[in-house]
Amino acid sequence: MRRPSLSMPAIALLALSPIAGAADAPLPAVPEGWRVELVAEAPEILYPTAIVAAPDGTIYLGQDPMDMPGPPTEPIDSVVSLRPDGTITTFASGLWAVMGLEWIEDTLYVVHAPFLSAFRDTDGDGRADERRDLVTGLGPEKPGFSGLNDHVPSGMELGMDGFLYIAVGDKGIPRAVGTDGETIQLKGGGVIRVRPDGSDLQVVSTGERNPLSAMLTATDEIFTYGNDDDSKKWPNSLTHHIVGGHYGYPYEFLLRPERCLPIVSGQIGGSGTQGMISKGDGLPGRYLGNLFLCDWGLQTVFRVEVSPNGATFRMARREPFVTAGEVPDFRPFSIAPSADGASLYLVDWGIGNWLLSGAQTGRLYRLWYDGPDAVAAAAEPETLGIAALDHPNHEVRLRAQRALAGRGASAVGPLVDLLGDASRGTQGRLHAIWALDAIGSPEATAALRKALADADPIVRSQAAKRAGLRKDSGARPTLERLLDDPDPVVRREASIALGLLGDPASAPALMASLGDPDPTVAWSIRQAIRTLDAWDADLLLAALTDPGRRAEALKLTDEAWAVPVADALANAVSALDDAGARAEVVGNLAGILLAYPEWDGEWFGTNPLAGAMPRKTEPWDREGMRLALIGLIKALDDPDATVRGRAIVGLRPAGPTVGPYLRARLDREADGENLRALALILGDQVDVAAVPSLARLATDSQTPMVARAAAVDALGNMPGPDALKALFGLTFDPDAPPELVARALPPLASSRALPPNDLASFLDREAPAIRIAALGALAAVEGLPEHLKARVASRLDDPDPTARVAAIAAVAALGHRPAVPSLVAIARSADVDPTVRSATVRALAALPDPDALPVYLEALGDRDAGLRRSAESALLAIRDRVRPQLEARASASDLTAPEAASLERLLTRFRPIVDWRVIGPFARTTARVFLGEPSIDFSRTHSGVEGRPISWQERRGDPRTGRVVIDDFKGGRGDLGGFGYDETSSPDLAAFAFAEIPSPTDREALLLFGSSGSLIAELNGEQIHAFSEYAGRPYAPDSDRVRVLLKAGSNRLVMRVRQGIGTWSFSVQVSEPGQRLLASPPAGEGIEALRSFALAHEGDPARGEAIFFAADGVGCAKCHAADGKGTADIGPDLTGLASKYDRAELIRSVLEPSQRIATGYQPVLVATDDGRVLTGLVREETADELVLADAEANLIRLPKARIEERRVGQTSIMPGGLAEALCPEEFADLIAYLGTLTAPAGEP
């Protein structure tokens, strides 16, 4: 790539000069015909963010030390000015995080949340001496509460309409106030606008994640570019924003896409920052209207072309424009045109990190085009008059527009003439609209209303937009006619304008327009009706009963909390003949029975899908709720079972008040699924009055079994003798179905109504289901007498394999050691069922015993990773008694890699590290503050979470495990939202720990790590280990095993440990010197070798299918069904998998299961009041109980009253290491089988 010569003439008159030595500086790569030069770099500029060019060629550049050396909660940011002569001056200081800049006339506008401020230099010394805060509360009070000033209000741009458009990240705006007292609230991310004097503050759009700049086209169409979230479900999003648009983040885009507008495009990965749209004339015409988007994560500036798609846009082209080239730490943050549009200024953050105390980073580049089709920018006009409105440079046109508006009445005539002259260029006529709008005289307003009928649709759309912004009621009749305009953009703007007018008289016209063929226009019409809040029950009912408008009316009334809406929906239940339509109406009624709580201003974090979804828990209007309730109760008697079912489920949130209606329906209902729902709801509500009906249902042989089973479960949840009597009658009825008897036993046993001796009698029942239930119930009895434990053990030879497994699990749960010989015999039997053997090994692992040593050793080489871990845990408990046998096995020549790893752990003696220095809490986004530093000053005070001063302190670990507890660092409200987080996010505070590991010699050693959350560990300045899981994990002293090299003397261990879940703690143990460590696996083994082999070899699908379903194999079928085979539902059914993913992705999904977790299968972690942390998938949930399925498909029942924390994890419960027991050929076979799992015939 050619570098620019310092002696070459300037391309633009006002371009900055390159810095000394720029000719030798490494440069990013640019396309053919483009050139780039380095204009400034650190330390002259530091941590640069937003950028804007003033007409005189001065560049204003934001600097953000708050997010590099910090602290992130103190206003230490600044704006510097770079003049054409190369001088750099601090223009303004003492700012919060500077993320947006705009220049208007002689004023610099700065977004530095929580402020939008205007700065002027009134004395010409190059420094601002006047500051005016135009908007306060622009974001959280301290946007850096999370440790970083991200997800906040950021880039802005001035539109033709006279508004500043500002992108807002999803920390949102709890309450912002403009200069005229106007207030707004924005939950989540989106776009807002405000006039340059701070008035007319408005929310434009919602439902974005973290857009960092608002970019406007020459016609003020709004675009943003944001970044993906931690769930990797929401992408780096290019979004076209319309007024009233909602784009679905964080929930609807995935779960209810009909409730949001789609983005233009997106990709997973990267980190979108700021951008611009080319609107000048200094570049070849093919670049006009292009979007230039910076991506900090992908180290690329992308060039994007979009094309109209009805009332919105589609992506037409996307390609890299600037890449890292010779600059390895190239991190583009923002890009802006020069004043004449002939150059682009590109801001480079210069490092892939933040919150680093010692780094000085930042660069500013200038790019220009000198290819064969280069064009010269048009000269500045001598005067900013009417002719300047047609200037090819957008910035010149804007300045001319403002200048003409400033002339007032004298400019109206020429502007009206221009606007009415269809022979003139469209762009100048648009600027005439907004100049006339700013003047606002009667003559100007008359011309603007006339423009609503202009032949040019762009003129009509801008005139419509103007009428809405100014609430021009006189334009209402014409705007209503424009709802039928042939141009979709005109219809969009007309509907938006009618909503902004606030005149309820427009409601009939808008209602008549429901069902517009353009989805964006249809959205705007619905949103206008909602904005007007002029609901009319009769009009709504007419729309709901009109087949042509019904679909739109249903969308309109979805989550519309208004009394007329409830009235119309309730009446539609009776008025509609179509059962499917009635079901939709009932669903909408259920959706407005309760409302969401008011937003408390808290952020939902970087991965809201990992938290609890918002729930409707609040009343909203007594009459509206009454009408909704009446409609749902009416639907209980609908002739269609589906409609009744929706009503039943919809009434559940109403609580006990609807008990009489549900009980009455229970006695009349014929549909089995509806009966099941009624029984479960009544049981969940502990409706004792329903016991007689539930008892009849449970014993009625004509009732579908699914409903009878639910009735038994509901009776088991009821207090009092009547429910027990019903359960006893069923249990001892010789004709009762075994399935129902089995369901009745656990509640009878847990309530102690059925004594253990009587319970044991059911072990002899003929039906296996009853024996299984009795075994499970006896296993849960605390203090079960020995003779009854022996009765349980007597079922170890049960002829039914499932009952046999239940007996094995019960023996283990009861800790019945006399059963060990029998268990060993079962495990070593040559013809034992694989499932029975697996359960037996796990039972023996729960009862560590040297007599079971052969079983444990064999299990260490098992294909099942979970079984290997169980055996290892048992051997750890008895290793001192069986060390010779372990050493003998370790010397064998046929060890597999998993066996070698386990035996190494078992034979190695470890010493816990107990002497630590710790410091915290820091915010969750704290970077590697102490990691990588050659030394640490332990006497220094640091700024912790929320800017609190914190210092290093000594802390000792447990002498046995080394566990260091730092739960006292949580503070605030602790796990449930301390330090600015609410309970749906992951607080995940950070702390740092330091210890020294002495070693007598240079040696190889093993380290064992345990933690309650994510951690990074460095040894002697080199990273040796990282574990990442924001939700945390169950603490164990040996969760991670790492092989390291210790040097003779003292070795420095520095760790960052995050909070995670449960008691905040960590531990490290080091292997003692003088021990032989087993050899590492030979080169060529491991997941990369498996990946490479499977990519290069096709494999045999038939053999792969056998591996998948083998009961004694890696255990795929334990959790997954596939291709119509298998019944497991712990994980998703894999049928159709190969239709979605290529071979490389199939391989990755097996080797790295946590990289892509299907929606609905994210694990839940819970911390209980007895100190346990459990993880699994939610299988059932009631108001009082949570049922999880663990990685072994075991069900764990937890009373909710005992759960202290609950989070959704990002680590799959699919055990890691599943593929370790497969040779490369077998792994390729398995992938080959997965590659056959295409969608069944007839499915897309």
Automatic annotation (TrEMBL):
Signal peptide: which range, if any? 1-22
Species this chain originates from: Tautonia sociabilis
Is the Metal-binding keyword given for this protein?
Answer: yes
Gene3D superfamilies found in the cross-reference section: Cytochrome c-like domain, Leucine-rich Repeat Variant, TolB, C-terminal domain
Q: Which domain of life is it from?
A: Bacteria
Q: Which InterPro entries match?
A: 6-blade_b-propeller_TolB-like, ARM-like, ARM-type_fold, Cyt_c-like_dom, Cyt_c-like_dom_sf, DUF7133, Haem-bd_dom_put, PBS_lyase_HEAT
Domain named Cytochrome c is located at: 1099-1238
The top of its lineage is:
Bacteria, Pseudomonadati, Planctomycetota, Planctomycetia, Isosphaerales
What protein does this entry describe? C-type cytochrome
Instruction: Tell me the GO molecular function terms.
Output: electron transfer activity; heme binding; metal ion binding
Keywords, sorted A to Z: Heme, Iron, Metal-binding, Signal
Q: Does the keyword Cell wall biogenesis/degradation apply?
A: no
